[in-house]
What we know:
Keywords: Plasmid. Pfam families: SnoaL_2. Residues 13-113 form the SnoaL-like domain. By secondary structure, the protein is of the alpha+beta class. The protein has a single domain (5-118), classed as Nuclear Transport Factor 2, Chain: A (Roll), CATH 3.10.450. The chain has helices at residues 5-20, 52-63; strands at 31-38, 48-50, 69-78, 81-89, 97-107, 110-118. A six-stranded mixed β-sheet has the order 2-1-6-5-4-3. A hairpin with a 7-residue loop joins strand 4 (81-89) and strand 5 (97-107). The longest helix is centred in the N-terminal third of the chain and has 16 residues, at 5-20. The N and C termini lie far apart (36 Å).
Amino acid sequence: xxxxxxxxxxxxxxxxxxxxxxxxxxxxxxxxxxxxxxxxxxxxxxxxxxxxxxxxxxxxxxxxxxxxxxxxxxxxxxxxxxxxxxxxxxxxxxxxxxxxxxxxxxxxxxxxxxxxxxxxx
Length: 121
């Protein structure tokens, strides 16, 4: 491991802020080569994206959607790991939301792994 906890904190906070502020361009400097992303859907394992461009394209699509509202419940970091507990809303009804978590790994100041999970029925 070659990432300190403060670097991880900064990268994870910047990553989440890109979604809250709908600024997909802020992700460009955060995603590393060889990144692996496991999405929350489809059940049971989620889609898997491999490589910087595939992960970046997927995350930018979400961050650019003005109809999606992300809100952090908690952001935690230690060494090369970061965890973001979040809530995602897509409508005005109380049922138009889901809670989830991303488990992230940072290496050399870049995100190289993102594993997404949601609370399900």
